């Protein structure tokens, strides 16, 4: 790749109304530096420049958090980026959306290999629909619902209405986390995303970034259309964000960084390591700072609990009013299992070493560990235990020649 400024000039955005889509604080990326380069390359050439934070259903970022995310001092946004407005996506407010029509059931069925055969209403943040061009700045990692994150996923579910958000997560859960996470190419879920994205009238462009697993050092930057830039970044991500081990472990302890502030996001410490846990083993999600299951969906999660896919399919009628994104989160965090004869058997156990009380964990069918008694050095010395620092973005798999 050439210089980022040169690559941006080749996109020919002169006179365009541009909306830049960026991740919230749950993704590792040197966003401040990258956005500064994008801004300085485009400002004065474009007709307007807005920033839209692709929250999905994550909580909005207040101004101080936004400034920290962009490496700015308190009150520094207006001084550094005068005339550039920054917006939180408001997934729950229908007034903020533009309706782009519907993906017919036949098209959904074809894209999803028949797993989902229903029409999907396509609504997207109005800023996207009214722009001439949308530029995604975001990292690419293995992802539990789509294969690899990034690209058009920043539109759907990043700044979409709840219809695509629910369909996106539910389809990934139906396929099964371990069958789709880190899966390259056009997965059924990405095919549905692209079917929705193709209804956006604006040009869809991206600065797709691959960062080092241990931090936010940029290893690769890919500029182009959302599909082209994403595909190149996903291929690179597969080389650096998938770690192979030679044998399964009885226990994996995922040490979650502070950027995951609830289990909705910290559950990445479960499904990114699930493939290397032995049958009957356990994942311990170590996140003493996490005090809630979800900032946004806590009440629904407490009602549903955490269960395998087959259990939730068997109780679909009882849970028909629960958003399918919540059901998918339940499946992702609990992992593979069966439900036969009224008995649920999950392949592995999941314990939370968090600030969530033990009774609350038991009520949602998760185990509990006192974070104050979790001895990480001692666990790391146990040959049957793998301690994963800064868990959540790197996928662990068994070496194909060494797996069971």
From TrEMBL:
InterPro entries per record: LarA-like, LarA-like_C, LarA-like_N
The segment(s) forming the LarA-like N-terminal domain are 7-171
Q: What is this protein called?
A: Lactate racemase domain-containing protein
Taxonomy of origin reads:
Bacteria, Bacillati, Actinomycetota, Actinomycetes, Micromonosporales
């Amino acid at each position: 790749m050439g210089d980022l400024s040169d690559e941006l000039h080749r996109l020919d955005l002169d006179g365009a109304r541009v909306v830049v889509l960026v991740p919230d604080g749950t993704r590792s990326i040197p966003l401040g530096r990258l956005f500064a380069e994008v801004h300085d390359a485009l400002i004065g050439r474009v007709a307007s420049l807005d920033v839209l934070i692709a929250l999905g259903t994550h909580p909005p970022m207040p101004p101080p958090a936004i400034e920290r995310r962009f490496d700015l001092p308190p009150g520094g946004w207006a001084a550094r980026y005068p005339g550039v407005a920054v917006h939180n996506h408001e997934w729950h407010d229908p007034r903020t959306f533009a309706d782009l029509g519907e993906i017919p059931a036949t098209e959904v069925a074809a894209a999803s290999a028949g797993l989902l055969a229903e029409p999907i209403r396509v609504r997207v943040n109005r800023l996207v629909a009214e722009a001439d061009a949308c530029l995604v700045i975001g990292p690419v990692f293995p992802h539990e619902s789509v294969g690899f994150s990034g690209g058009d996923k920043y539109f759907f579910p990043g700044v979409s209405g709840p219809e695509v958000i629910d369909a996106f997560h539910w389809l990934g859960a139906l396929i099964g986390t371990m069958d789709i996470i880190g899966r390259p190419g056009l997965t059924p879920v990405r095919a549905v995303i692209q079917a929705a994205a193709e209804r956006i009238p604006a040009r869809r462009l991206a600065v797709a970034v691959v960062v080092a697993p241990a931090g936010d050092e940029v290893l690769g930057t890919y500029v182009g259309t959302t599909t082209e830039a994403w595909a190149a970044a996903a291929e690179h991500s597969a080389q650096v964000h998938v770690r192979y081990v030679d044998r399964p472990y009885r226990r994996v302890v995922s040490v979650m960084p502070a950027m995951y502030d609830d289990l909705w996001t910290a559950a990445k410490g479960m499904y990114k390591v699930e493939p290397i846990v032995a049958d009957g083993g356990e994942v311990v999600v170590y996140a003493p700072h996490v005090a809630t299951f979800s900032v946004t969906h806590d009440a629904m999660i407490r009602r549903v609990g955490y269960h395998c896919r087959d259990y939730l399919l068997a109780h679909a009628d009882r849970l028909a009013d629960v958003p399918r994104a919540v059901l998918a989160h339940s499946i992702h965090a609990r992992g593979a299992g069966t439900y036969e004869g009224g008995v649920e058997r999950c392949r592995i156990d999941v314990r939370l070493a968090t600030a969530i009380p033990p009774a609350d964990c038991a009520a949602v069918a998760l185990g509990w560990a006192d974070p104050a008694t979790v001895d990480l050095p001692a666990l790391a010395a146990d040959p049957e235990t793998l301690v994963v620092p800064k868990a959540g973005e790197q996928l662990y798999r068994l070496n194909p020649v060494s797996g069971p």
